[in-house]
Amino acid sequence: MTNHKVSVDGRQRRRRLTYLGTGICLLFVVVTGFLYGAVPITWQEMVSVAQGQGAGDTERILYYLRLPRVICAALVGMNLALAGCILQGVLHNPLADPGIIGVTAGAGVAAMAVMILSPALTAWVPLAAFLGALVALAIVFLLAWDRGINPLRLILAGVAVAAFFGGGTTALSVMFPDRIQGVVNWLAGGFAGARWTYVWIILPYSLIGLLGALWNYRKLNALQMGEEVALSLGINLKQTRIILVVLAAILAASSVSVAGLLGFVGLIVPHLMRLVVGSDFEYLLPASAVFGAALLVGADTFARTIFSPTEIPVGIFLSFLGAPFFLYLLKRRSRG
Hints:
- The chain is mostly helical.
- It has helices at residues 2-35, 43-50, 56-91, 103-117, 125-144, 151-175, 184-188, 196-215, 217-224, 227-232, 237-259, 265-277, 281-305, 314-335.
- The chain is globular.
- The chain starts with a helix and ends with a helix.
């Protein structure tokens, strides 16, 4: 009994330290994101702007460029991490991320179609991406439905739909090679054009997704223990899976609509946090949300300053970071 109590106390202490560490990390990268860029800003200048006494140019850079960019990156990082967390719990697949249900590909082809076919309507790209993601999700549900949502059928349907919409993206690139340059940065994923409009677009979906995920953590824990256990606890498997997958799709679709095609955040973050706080979604979800926000804000700041004044899309940086990690997980899983 004593050993069990010591083990529980140690786990709780590690979780508290994780929350503290991720919170400090998020605060650090947010401040760094304000200070560094093509035009460096000193700490004193930032404090002056916060007090309403800053220079006009500095205030415009902070308020109209860096603040919405940092907020967008934090919300997108949180959303993708939560979406990956939810899908890994629902699908019983530790390699699951938002791209596995076709949402990312659907959003990508819809946004690309607007940018290539109707360049004058680029202001509607976020809405088009969101609608494309929902259409992809609806198709996946239709293909995967068999008296309920079967996790294996959902994965297979998602892969098929992602391949189909990926083909649409390639077709648009081949048919309109003279217009593709304008959408390359969006396809790579990034926040170069982030503004306050994007913050207001993603914020309500982020709040809905965050509250919905935290509200359903007990159901995710029940699903993790197996269908029989979940049924014995009174969980409606069909309804619960639909709600959770829709929540994940909302989080992923809103992220793609403002940031383009970003990969690996939904895969990396839940795994790293699971190693530290354990598999209990009561602790895993909030830890993943905070660390996901910190990771993407930090990655975006690094991507736009490392070769300053040239800016590389953060999606490229995440690919270099995430691909080796994915291979590591795959190798580790095959050994297990």
